[in-house]
Amino acid sequence: MTYPKYRSTRSAEPVSFADALLQGLAPDGGLFVPTFIPKLDGIDFRKKDGSFSDLAIDVLTRWLGGELASESIRAAARDALDFPVPLIPLQGDGWDNVHVLELFHGPTLSFKDFGARTMARLMSTVLGSAGEKLTILVATSGDTGSAVADGFAGVPNVRVVLLYPDGLVSPTQERQLIVKRQGVQAVAVRGNFDDCQRLVKEAFADPGYDGVQLSSANSINIGRLLPQMLYYIHAVRQLGGAEVVISVPSGNLGNLTGGVMAALGGMPVRQFLASHNANDFFPRHLTDGSTEWLPSKRTYSNAMDVGVPSNFERLQHLLTADDLRRLIRGFSVSDDDTLASMRRVADECGYIADPHTAVGLEAVRRYRKSTGSPEPAIVLSTAHPAKFPEVTVQALGKKAPTPERLSRLWDEETNVISIEPSAGALREVVLARW
Ligand SMILES: *Cc1c(COP(=O)(O)O)cnc(C)c1O
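Above: inputs. Below: predicted complex with pyridoxal-5'-phosphate.
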């Protein structure tokens, strides 16, 4: 058995998984990609009843077995991925064979829990053997931060600094970010998400952090991408390995990159739909090859408000331009159409979708309309609708039932610092003792 190493999208020098994991972003500013994609040979896609946990261990071992003991991989996967991953068939006229893959049953109710929880455990395993200390910087447009904070809280030798755009995340998302957690500092940046991402990038190049080992936990970290392959494989297997259309509500394209890696490993798939909101950089690129970017716009699906998707560079590396266009169709869904989609799915199927999932559902509807063929489809549901009560009320006139773990947050203590979007202000927070 041979295992991949990792190298930057901008150089040929291979590094270990541990190095790629701890560095996050490559020193040359590129993103780590595997030197090859391990095949999924031997996984029976017709076996509908296999357990998610066993599948996760099997797949992760194909990637990491060269460096991590099988016991560590098993423990990380079992511990991190300890929540259900239901595939729900929609019941309604015109929605035959459309399935919603609910990825929001983890502790922070978004799909980010898969990547963040697994990555935290893998980092802790790797650090444990090296005795290092690490400060993780995370720029979040909503869900990443809380998933990472929750995944790392109390993990020895790791501190987490969360940057989020002040006033641009929903009150519920903010509450999930600023709840006090051991080893975690939330920072409200007086700017937008692109400012937060820029601050993180600048920190990595800033000599003022001499002696502090910085890492990132955004979707750029390879440790988050690997677990994001697993639920695709699990869902496709539950449909008996049919060539499905998979709609992925997308922002930074980390989730989609996980799916593409699974496809390159041999998972059968007809077509990915990159389902974006009004931030349409990638759909435009797929249509006309343009790489012109615009500043991010605020939308109802705010975890996807990304002007320049950071995983674009990775996708371009993994796929030729032709394959990219063959395998992925891009869609851009406006706020009005997002609300209409939420309404349509509630009316026609009795299903409450959050605004991000609604973008994915609308992409499937448009795709089916344009192809005229009701191929089986999977829509990744990336967040629980109760995280977005304002938009849900606006669309449906009522809230989704609130899970207990969400309502409980309003009674907890918080911890947040507000800063200007400047490198110096961030440095002050990170270098302070806490
Ligand atoms: C992060 C996020 C997305 C976008 O995922 P990317 O990997 O950035 O493309 C979509 N929906 C929700 C709810 C998210 O939190």
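Residues 153 and 420 are 26 Å apart (CA to CA).
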